[in-house]
Design a protein that fits this description.
The protein is an alpha/beta fold. The chain has 2 domains: 166 residues, VC0802-like (2-Layer Sandwich), CATH 3.30.2130; 209 residues, HUPs (Rossmann fold). It contains 13 helices and 15 strands. Strands 1, 2, 3, 4, 5, 6, 7, 8 and 9 form a 9-stranded mixed beta sheet that branches. A 6-stranded mixed beta sheet has the order 14-13-10-11-12-15, with helices on both faces. The radius of gyration is 27 Å and the shape is elongated. The relative contact order is 0.12. InterPro entries: Rossmann-like_a/b/a_fold, ThiI_AANH, ThiI_fer, ThiI_N, THUMP_dom, THUMP_ThiI, tRNA_STrfase, tRNA_sulfurtransferase_ThiI. Pfam families: ThiI, ThiI_fer, THUMP. Its EC number is 2.8.1.4. It is found in: Cytoplasm. It comes from Methanococcoides methylutens MM1.
């Protein structure tokens, strides 16, 4: 029966007119791309004030659109002319199919623009139509506006009316591509894909950078990271994700040879920031995303995180900083990366047995005085490989 999907958004409505128009156009583009990616048939996607509509009778359209960043909710609906009698008749048809004898129902009506009737009037007239139809079928109708067994929604707009019964919760956020692009340090563990997804949800396109620790790690670590990005690609249907594989093993070997071994992880993270920063400049990106969560591992204590960034002046974003591991795992499962992230690898063979957990803010700066750190970073970035992943 459904022939259209209503797409609702939230924050976009608070923007200025020019910004709102731009964001809506990007959102329409992303919805179209998601529908095509999910093989959902549709005629067109178009905008009206406060809403986006998808002309489609495909039962999967509402769910696919709900997975587009920026979408708050969707509903498969029946579209009719903006006439309350016509809408009421559709409500009665739905009620006859849906409401059994003795069950209760409620009409949820709203209007947009000048329709000549209030929302209360529309709800009353549609409710009367359902009541009388059920009576004519020999059923005993009940009205319950608090906790009905069934709800029928009517949205009366200037030129059309929409009737529906269900709402699919959307992923929310801002349309992907409205907030520029950033580098994400992608390890393939549980945290970094979730951090990337959260920033994508805020409208940021991502460029994953994998610091390849070989020979201190095996090929499974890279494969795991790539598979995680393949999952994230599904959430970015309009734009392919470009990924970098940056050799980092020789850097680790240098740290172990010339520096205090307990500082290896701090030197590693600081150097990864430097490498990511060079790629950020090359790609015209605006920041670097990490999967750091305060206190979660030895390298992520507050003193260590201070030492990691001291004197660098690099724009870093830590979307997981205040989340605990359980919250991060729940998000990983929702996104679809958790099962990949727990796949076994050899781990990193350069991790010291007793890493520094309370570094002085300038500790690593003093360690770097023994290194040709800029040359190390430039060599790694020069030998980096880039490629586009495919959605899985």
């Amino acid at each position: 029966m459904y022939d259209v999907v209503i797409v609702r958004y939230g924050e976009l409505a608070l923007k200025s007119q020019g910004v709102r128009n731009l964001y809506e156009r990007i959102l329409v583009r992303n919805i179209e791309a998601m529908l095509k990616q999910e093989n959902v048939s549709f005629s067109r996607v178009y905008r009206e004030w406060g809403r986006i509509f998808i002309e489609s009778d495909d039962p999967n359209a509402a769910k696919a659109a709900a997975d587009v960043f920026g979408v708050v909710s969707t509903s498969s609906a029946i579209m009719v002319e903006a006439d309350v009698d016509v809408a009421a008749n559709v409500c009665a048809d739905i009620g006859a199919d849906l409401i059994k004898d003795g069950e209760s129902f409620g009409i949820r009506a709203r209007r947009s623009g000048k329709t000549g009737l209030s929302s209360t009037d529309i709800g009353r007239l549609c409710g009367d139509a359902v009541w009388h139809r059920l009576e004519s079928l020999g059923r005993t109708p009940k009205v319950d506006l608090s906790e009905p067994d069934h709800e029928i929604f009517v949205e009366m707009r200037q030129n059309r009316a929409y009737v529906f019964t269900d709402t699919v919760k959307g992923v929310g956020g801002l349309p992907l591509g409205t907030q520029g692009k950033m580098i994400v340090l992608m390890s393939g563990g549980i945290d970094s894909p979730v951090a990337a997804w959260l920033m994508m949800r805020r409208g940021v396109k991502i460029i994953p950078v994998y610091a390849n620790n070989a020979p201190f790690s095996d090929d499974r670590a890279l494969e795991r990271a790539v598979k995680c990005v393949e999952v994230l690609q599904r959430w970015s249907p309009a734009d392919p994700i470009k990924m970098y594989d940056v050799p980092h093993g020789s850097n680790l070997d240098t740290f172990l040879t010339l520096c205090n071994k307990k500082n290896t992880c701090l030197l590693c993270k600081r150097t990864m920031y430097r490498m990511a920063y060079e790629i950020m400049k090359k790609e015209g990106a605006d920041g670097i995303i990490t999967g750091s969560s305060i206190g979660q591992v030895a390298s992520q204590t507050a003193p260590n995180m201070h030492a990691e960034i001291y004197g660098l002046g690099i724009p870093l974003y830590h979307p997981l900083i205040g989340l605990d591991k359980t919250e991060i795992i729940d998000l990983a499962r929702r996104i679809g990366t958790y099962d990949i992230s727990i796949m076994p690898t050899s781990g990193c063979g350069a991790v010291p047995e007793h890493p520094e957990i309370n570094a002085k803010f300038d500790l690593i700066v003093r360690e770097e005085e023994n290194l040709d750190i800029e040359d190390m970073v430039q060599e790694a970035v020069t030998n980096a490989k880039s490629f586009f992943v495919k959605e899985k």
